[in-house]
Amino acid sequence: LYxxxxxxxxxxxxxxxxxxxxxxxxxxxxxLVPNRSDLDTGIGAVGNDTGSLIAGGTNVLNWxxxxxxxxxxxxxxxxxxxxxxxxxxxxxxxxxxxxNSANRSSDIIFEHGVGLYGGRIVGGREGLYNDAATADSFxxxxxxxxxxxxxxxxxxxxxxxxxxxxxxxxxxxxxxxTDYRYVRFQAPGPENRFDFxxxxxxx
Length: 203
Known about the structure:
The chain is an all-beta fold. It is built from no helices and 16 strands. It has strands spanning 3-5, 11-13, 22-24, 42-45, 50-55, 58-64, 69-71, 80-82, 105-112, 116-125, 137-144, 149-155, 161-163, 172-174, 181-186, 193-198.
């Protein structure tokens, strides 16, 4: 590796005519290596307009000029593209490691426009996580109404499902905000349906 400093103070490594403030030209990828005893781990490139974080000679995280980021792929076609060839389960983890309160959750939050709520998926705790025997969780789904996320469905640690009910005590527990509640089963066509009504008196 040789260095060049031109009359404008631009520094270049392995290039006689550096064109930017700091330029390293090399046929070796990665180009920048933080640990000289680990030459296949560092920062490099994948063709034009794509940067890459390389570990053990593998392009682990890649970013393109259009803002797309790829994990496990050098050609991300979405804002975040995760890809891996595995025989089993492929997933990503969201972990809240604070165990001091029951009011902790790991959430996926959706927004639209600029700061307008678009719903939320909540993985929450039903109590303190003191040990494995008390590690009980729920999964809830929220939708936005008038720019406020409101829980619409919850699945408890026991497997009970509540619709508009945060504490279902049956396999399916449905609560409606109207006096006359109903559950509808419908096949294709407006006449092919069965409605189960419950009046305000519970009958």
